[in-house]
Amino acid sequence: MADIIQLLPDSIANQIAAGEVVQRPASVVKELMENAIDAAADDIKVIVKEAGKILIQVIDNGTGMSETDARLSFERHATSKIKKAEDLFQLRTMGFRGEALASIAAIAHVEMKTRMPVKELGTLLLIEGSEVKKQEQTAFEAGTSISVKNLFYNIPARRNFLKSTPVEM
Ligand SMILES: Nc1ncnc2c1ncn2[C@@H]1O[C@H](COP(=O)(O)OP(=O)(O)OP(=O)(O)O)[C@@H](O)[C@H]1O
Ligand SMILES: [Mg+2]
């Protein structure tokens, strides 16, 4: 019999992996708030429209990111929180997989604004379905804002099986 196993294209593998990290809008809120806490923020704003079906935005006053880190943060397995396997035994952060932002960006439209306090200008990034649509310098307060729109736009099964707005809320 002929061989039948194929390697999935990265884009599909990413979408499937993303579904494991993000099951519903609340998963996005959790991941973004954990990132804000890990970034030492002591002021975190959460804006949610239609239980996150329209918009989820988390704004923090944490460390912010350099332009290069902002871009890298959306890659899979990209993390500043561990460097080697032993680090897993002394975690001091909520995240460590380097999966959350890559997952969210694979299945939604994401806008990130981020600025490190020492820098004059920050970075604006627009990513849709893992594709970088825009990257430019921007004026922004110190910290990070991430807006997530059209969650599950490319996974109709997930989008259609979201519960009612009050339940998701
Ligand atoms: N709000 C933020 N402020 C500053 N840096 C951030 C923020 N959010 C993400 N980052 C940076 O981007 C990296 C990637 O974030 P992401 O959430 O994808 O992975 P993680 O937090 O390292 O691990 P996990 O997938 O378990 O959450 C983080 O390691 C961190 O360096
Ligand atoms: Mg995280």
Layout: helices, strands, pairs:
Layout: H1 10-21, H2 25-38, E1 44-49, E2 55-60, H3 67-72, H4 100-106, E3 109-115, E4 122-128, E5 131-138, E6 143-149, H5 156-160, H6 165-168
Antiparallel strand pairs: 1-2, 2-6, 3-4, 3-6, 4-5
Give the fraction of residues assigned to helices.
25-40%
- Give the C-level CATH assignment: Alpha Beta
Compressed to H and E, one letter per element, the order equals HHEEHHEEEEHH
How widely separated are the two ends? 51 Å
Report the sheet-strand fraction: 15-25%
- As for the number of domains, it is 1
Radius of gyration based on Cα positions: 17 Å
Question: Low-confidence parts, pLDDT < 50 over ≥5 residues?
Answer: none
State mean pLDDT (0 to 100 scale): 95
CATH topology value? Heat Shock Protein 90
Largest sheet: 6 strands, antiparallel
The tally of beta strands, per DSSP, is: 6
Small-molecule binders: adenosine-5'-triphosphate, magnesium ion
Structural class: alpha+beta
The CATH architecture name reads 2-Layer Sandwich
CATH superfamily: Histidine kinase-like ATPase, C-terminal domain
Main β-sheet, spatial strand arrangement: 1-2-6-3-4-5
Which shape, going by the Cα principal axes? Answer: globular
Count every helix, treating DSSP H or I runs of 4 or more residues as helices.
Answer: 6
Describe the structure concisely for a colleague.
With 169 residues, the chain is α+β, with helices and mostly antiparallel strands. 28% of the residues lie in helices and 24% in strands. The protein has six helices and six strands.
